[in-house]
Design a protein that fits this description.
heterodimer, A: 112 residues, mainly beta, four-stranded antiparallel β-sheet, B: 108 residues, five-stranded antiparallel β-sheet, 56% strand
Chain lengths: 112, 108
């Protein structure tokens, strides 16, 4: 158990819908990262937050947004969902940017 | 040029073999490297974390960083069927960059 908690574990929804994925980082970790992993693909970096502020953006679509709250949990919002958004979405946390990165078990999103 | 490049494999070895997994990196300004193990559709699990060059050993696993050639390696001794997974290398620093992963199968 990495200490990073993600909910929900599985989510099935329809095209055009909106979903919210939630992440609780490890105790004491200030930095939260979101990654997307499609079937048989590598990890695609979406976005990073550090202590409530956006720190870096990767290949995140405009239909996607995220935020980190004062209690350091983070939410990833995916809207106007398309079939191609079906993937595993991982949250990871670290104490600082250069430190060890720990992943949650992921949220598996299926868009029908 | 990608920050981290990794041979995707797949790699298949008999049980008990020594496995060598390799990555190259492009930016020598950063010195934090990690190896992750990912079982199918599960979250990547941090196996090894190294800073700078040299070797780091943890049980059957040894991580090696060669700064002169910008090469990072993970060696698995006495490989077990439970080691069958995808292994990801990563570079830390200002941001985290991951290799695409090497799929390993250890045959009993």
């Amino acid at each position: 158990d990495s200490g990073v908690t993600q909910t929900p574990k599985h989510l099935i929804t329809a095209t055009g819908q909106r979903v919210t994925l939630r992440c609780s980082p490890r105790s004491g970790d200030l930095s939260v990262y979101w990654y997307q992993q499609s079937l048989d693909q590598g990890l695609q970096f979406l976005i990073q937050y550090y202590n409530g502020e956006e720190r870096a953006k990767g290949n995140i679509l405009e239909r996607f947004s995220a935020q980190q709250f004062p209690d350091l949990h983070s939410e990833l919002n995916l809207s106007s969902l398309e079939l191609g958004d079906s993937a595993l979405y991982f949250c990871a946390s670290s104490k600082r940017t250069a430190g060890e990165l720990f992943f949650g078990e992921g949220s598996r999103l299926t868009v029908l | 040029q990608k920050e981290v490049e990794q041979d995707p494999g797949p790699l298949s070895v008999p049980e008990g073999a020594i496995v060598s997994l390799n990555c190259t990196y492009s930016n020598s300004a950063f010195q934090y490297f990690m190896w992750y193990r990912q079982y199918s559709r599960k979250g990547p699990e941090l196996l090894m974390y190294t800073y700078s060059s040299g070797n780091k050993e943890d049980g059957r696993f040894t991580a090696q960083v060669d700064k002169s050639s910008k090469y990072i390696s993970l060696f698995i001794r006495d490989s077990q069927p439970s080691d069958s997974a995808t292994y990801l290398c990563a570079r830390g620093g200002n941001q985290f960059y991951f290799g695409t992963g090497t799929s390993l199968t250890v045959i009993p």
